[in-house]
């Protein structure tokens, strides 16, 4: 999980706005900022970063504050791990990367991404909600997350980890299993609890997001794996329709298409970023005064 292929497009470790990151691609390429889901990390996007880089994009995957190698402030308030605090980190990262970014939020990261659009729209060139939903998580994953809190109260993080492994049906190599354990226990305990509560309590903000995106002509994409087992695919399709967003289903993938089908996921992101850049240029031209008017002024 932490060994990366060599070559000109291999991910490199970096720090972006205080957040641990993996980057790949030209420094002057369009920046694609990728936010992982609950208990996830930048490594979840490692398979797609070389593919984005090969297409001329600057892929930047981060650990959000409190995740894995991005430590939170131990003396700071819980609000640093809430959606508004994480969205502010996105705005700082976008500024450090040189301006509006193409923002991709996976699962819980999608909730952070749309919070960034609402609070800091100037930081976004486009928005992709990848395997995310209109409101709090539902279904089996929602039930499992609710069960985390009594487990934590009874036995701490060790009890939560043991329960998570007991129901994990994926066959994993020893190296992958060890990485997942290391990541889980390296993440902020307090951050995990705050983010988990946010994931269970988030209201439906789709209408507000649609208005905010339209006001600044920010292109939107909703995409998910064909077998997504978090927010049901039908719910994500309905969200896309309500947002007026492009909607795509990624084949041969479940809830983590960046890891489960990297070529299709990267291809979709590359095409969307290129289309968004074209739309952005047209929008700018529509807002700019004609050359002769500028000369008169």
What would you note in describing this structure?
This protein has 297 residues and is α/β, with parallel strands linked by helices. It contains eleven helices and eight strands. Helix 1 (49-54) links the parallel strand 3 and strand 4 (58-62). Helix 2 crosses helix 3 (108-119) and helix 4 (139-166) packs antiparallel against helix 6. The longest helix is centred in the middle third of the chain and has 28 residues, at 139-166. 45% of the residues are buried. The model is unreliable at 282-297 (pLDDT under 50).
What topology does this entry show?
Layout lengths: L11 E5 L2 E6 L6 E5 L13 H6 L3 E5 L20 H14 L4 E6 L1 H12 L4 E7 L8 H28 L7 H13 L2 H13 L4 H10 L4 E6 L7 H11 L2 E5 L6 H4 L1 H26 L3 H6 L1
Parallel strand pairs: 3-4, 3-5, 5-6, 6-7, 7-8
Antiparallel strand pairs: 1-2, 2-4
Helix pairs in contact: 2-3, 4-6
Count every beta strand, where a strand is a DSSP E run of 2 or more residues. Answer: 8
Largest sheet: 8 strands, mixed
Low-confidence runs of at least 5 consecutive residues: 282-297
Order of helices and strands: EEEHEHEHEHHHHEHEHHH
Distance between the termini: 58 Å
What is the overall shape? globular
Q: Please state roughly what percent of the residues sit in beta strands, choosing from under 5%, 5-15%, 15-25%, 25-35%, 35-45% or over 45%.
A: 15-25%
Rg from C-alpha positions? 19 Å
* Annotation field: number of helices: 11
Helix fraction?
Answer: 40-55%
Structural class: alpha/beta
- For the largest sheet, list the strands in their spatial order: 1-2-4-3-5-6-7-8
Q: Average pLDDT value? A: 93
């Amino acid at each position: 999980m932490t060994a990366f292929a060599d070559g000109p497009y291999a991910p490199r470790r970096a720090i972006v706005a205080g957040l641990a990151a993996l980057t790949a691609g030209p420094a002057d390429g369009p920046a694609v900022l990728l936010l992982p889901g609950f208990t996830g990390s930048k490594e979840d996007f490692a398979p797609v970063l070389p593919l984005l880089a090969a297409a001329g994009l600057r892929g930047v995957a981060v650990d959000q504050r409190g995740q894995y190698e991005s430590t939170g402030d131990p003396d700071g308030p819980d609000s640093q791990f809430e959606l508004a605090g994480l969205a502010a980190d996105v705005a700082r990262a976008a500024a450090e990367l040189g301006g509006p970014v193409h923002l991709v939020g996976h699962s819980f990261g999608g909730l952070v991404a749309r919070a960034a659009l609402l609070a800091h729209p100037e930081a976004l060139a486009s928005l992709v909600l990848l395997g995310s939903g209109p409101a709090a998580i539902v279904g089996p994953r929602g039930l499992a997350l609710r069960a985390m809190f009594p487990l934590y109260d009874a036995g701490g993080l060790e009890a939560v980890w043991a329960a998570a492994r007991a129901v994990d049906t994926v066959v994993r190599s020893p190296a992958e299993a060890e990485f997942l354990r290391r990541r889980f226990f390296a993440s902020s305990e307090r951050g995990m609890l705050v983010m988990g509560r946010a994931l269970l309590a988030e209201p439906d903000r789709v209408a507000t997001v649609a208005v905010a995106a339209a006001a600044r002509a920010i292109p939107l994409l909703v995409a998910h794996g064909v077998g997504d087992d978090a927010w049901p695919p039908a719910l994500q399709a309905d969200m896309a329709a309500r947002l007026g967003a492009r909607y795509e289903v990624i084949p041969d993938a479940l809830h983590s298409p960046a890891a489960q089908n990297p070529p299709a996921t990267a291809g979709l992101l590359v095409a969307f970023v290129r289309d968004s850049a074209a739309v952005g240029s047209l929008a700018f031209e529509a807002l700019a005064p004609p050359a002769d008017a500028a000369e008169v002024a």
